[in-house]
Design brief:
Blueprint (H helix, E strand, L loop, with lengths): L14 H6 L2 H22 L1 H7 L3 H32 L5 H8 L14 H5 L2 H29 L7 H12 L6
Length: about 180
Amino acid sequence: MTDDSLGHIDPPIVFGQRFAFSDTFRGLFREGMLLVEETAAYLDGDGRVESRDLPPGGSLSYATESMRLTTRLMQLASWLLLQRAVNEGEMTFEQAGSEKAKVRLRGFGSVTEGRGWEDLPERLRGLIERSVRLQERVIRLDDAIYNAANADEPAENPVSRQLGQLARAFGGGRE
């Protein structure tokens, strides 16, 4: 925030919106899309082979967790593609917000310990763990972008208020 000679203070920079246009976002996008591709290749290839050797309980866990993984990644990919469309000017922020309402980022819990987890092939467990970490990062970014943008008014900044009072007291600011 900067203060000019009249006591006007620029609004704070919204981190989430800044981040969404950064090289870091582009890296997150690439990471997400690569994870989708890697998961699809695994589930269509080695995963099918590995799942055949599982005990009955492990087969059920495999089916359940692979469906959760696929659903989680498709939702994350949808969110990433929406945000990229905004970044590239193909869609407005408001349009993305409307479409984003169809994307579900939360509620895809996976069992990451215990018997069912231990029965899963190691590569599937690794893909699940990576997808959960990606999900957590995207949720934080989504909150930073959309919750900040949807706030009715920015929170009052006590330092800004005091600077304004000082400026008014010394004749430099307006009410």
